[in-house]
Amino acid sequence: MAGGMPIQTGQIAGSYLTGRALIFPLSLVISLFFLWGFSYGLLDVLNKHFQTVLGITKLESTGLQVMYFGGGYLLFSPIAAESLKRRGYKFTILMGLCLYSLGAISFWPTAHFTTYEKRKAAFGGFCVCTLVIACGLATLETAANSYAVVIGNPASASARLQFCQAWNGVASFIGPLIAAKYFFSGENANSLTNVQFVYLAVACAGAAVAVLFLVVKMPEVSDEDLSEDPATAADSLATDEFSRGVGAGPLYKQYNMIFAFIAQFCYVGAQVTIASFFINYATENASYSSTQASNFLSYALIAFTVGRFVATALATIFQSDFLLIIYAALAIGLNTYLCIGHGTPAVAVLITIFFFEAPMYPTIFAMGTANLGRHTRRGAGILVMGVSGGAIFPPIQGAIADSAGIRISYIVPLCGFVYVLGYVVTHWLRNGRHVLCVKEVVAVMADTPRKSVDQSVERLEDVSLQKE
After folding, report:
1. Rounded to an integer, what is the distance from CA 51 to the centroid of its chain?
2. Exposure of 375 by Cβ count < 10 A (0-12 exposed, 13-18 middle, 19+ buried)?
3. What is the largest CA-CA distance in the chain?
4. What is the predicted pLDDT for the residue at 18?
5. What mean pLDDT do residues 238-254 have?
6. In the chain, at which end, N or C, are there fewer CB atoms within 10 A of the end residue's CB?
7. Phi, psi (5° rounding) for residue 11?
């Protein structure tokens, strides 16, 4: 660890972890990404399964997404952020794992006592269980995303978060594969029995990871480190002109964070609607069975996972905002075809769009939380609140799908991608228009003694003015 105390102290002071010191804490964080990726993969399949078993409409089935993204992420993320600021990363992660396991184990009695006569009430019970799971996941995302960004070199924050988020994708395609076998096959096609066992396993996995975090030591990052870190100061000069200085001014004046929150809201809304109605699109717009469509969803999530790993490699070469411009533009083109295409080619495009969605969430998160300094933890909570877009977009698309058809309804995610493109283009234009990744300034500043930070910052500003 450069410029700080030994890793055994469990504290990061004055700089960031590098090299081998990063492996263990990032491995812990990756286990959290894996957990919520698996849960998210199951959620999209349950959406269709409940339509079949409980006899609910497409619009009603989006109640799961409303609870998951609206109730959990929108309402609980500020609480998680406050816990993160006051109690630190380890306590917040343990709190999230407890809520996650509690919500998962609650699926057992809800599914066990469900009858067809009480199917509407049962669906309400599943929504409540989903809400508790989402509160846990919102807590984990607030802590884990922020931790992955601040634990290492700011220059590689986007690539590092891309890599961690990629394991989220690995878990997310396992969920639909399990669902295709246990939810939609044979006698289980009209039963909730196996839902109990799947979520019991999810609860056990959450409890096991909680025990792991309880017994190990995690390097912590204090607000003072975030406010004073010279590497972060350099990063603000090198990559962000929305707000000069590290966390300067009140939180409500961190305009880059606010615009990033809206972009996150629109992106997640687009992603969730595309995935939530994937099976409906494949069965109604191209004559596939639910089992085949669920398998195709797994293939799409594999493409999503591959996209994350590819984006991780590209983020070490290209500037993250420039890279996202290309991805967002391609996503818009593909999404436009979804609104007019049909048959197997349209399903192929639907699978392909997952690849280009892949880097959006971690890249927007890293861009939005850069240079927040003492506001980093609360800013992370606000960016995670952007996930609540997944609660707003699906009901709108569900209503359009019920009235005008599933194909036309895909205009909803198209609107989300358009805003994302607008945000990243503006960010790129206002922050140097770099194509290749900016690393040199941060590397120099990371080795600069703290007492000379002000002089180094002044020199960087002089160089910037000369270039202009």
Report:
1. 26
2. buried
3. 75
4. 73
5. 56
6. C
7. -135, 140
In this prediction the pTM is 0.71
Reduce the DSSP state of residue 218 to 3 states and report it: coil
- Contact between 335 and 349 under an 8 Å Cβ cutoff? The reply is no
Which residue, 149, 145, 385, is CA-closest to 261?
Answer: 385
Both structure tokens of 313? 């490699």
- Residue matched to tokens 């699978």: 351
Compute how many other C-beta atoms are within 10 angstroms of the C-beta atom of residue 359.
Answer: 27
Q: Copy the structure tokens of residue 375.
A: 């506001």
Question: Tokens 């109990």 appear where?
Answer: 196
Measure the CA–CA gap between 44 and 172, rounded to whole angstroms: 10
Tell the CATH topology of 13-456.
Answer: Growth Hormone; Chain: A; (1.20.1250)
Nearest of 335, 3, 369 to residue 160 by alpha carbon: 369
223, 146 in Cβ contact below 8 A? no
Is the predicted pLDDT of residue 449 greater than 70, yes or no?
no
Cα distances (angstroms) measured from residue 282 to each of 260, 263, 358, 394: 32, 28, 21, 17
* Per-residue model confidence as pLDDT tens digits over 298-308: 788 889 889 98
Instruction: In whole angstroms, give the CA distance from residue 176 to residue 419.
Output: 29
Separation between Cα atoms, residue 223 and residue 221, nearest integer Å: 7
Q: How far is CA 261 from CA 116, 165, 195, 340, 366, in A?
A: 41, 18, 34, 30, 11
- Count of other CB atoms within 10 angstroms of residue 289: 12
Domain chopping of the chain, boundaries:
13-456
Q: Burial level of 401, CB count in 10 A (0-12/13-18/19+)?
A: buried
SS3 content of the chain, % helix, strand, coil (to 5): 80, 0, 15
Q: What is the pLDDT of residues 140-187, one digit of tens each?
A: 988 888 888 888 887 777 788 888 888 877 777 776 677 666 665 666
Q: What is the DSSP string of 68-123?
A: IIIIIIIHHHHHHHHHHHHH-HHHHHHHHHHHHHHHHHTHHHHHHT--STTHHHHH
Q: Which residues of 32-68 are buried (b: 16+ CB within 10 A; e: fewer)?
A: bbbbbbbbbbbbbbbbbbbbebbebebbbbbbbbbbb
Range ranked top by mean pLDDT from 163-167, 357-361, 371-375: 357-361
Q: Give the 3-state secondary structure of residue 447.
A: coil
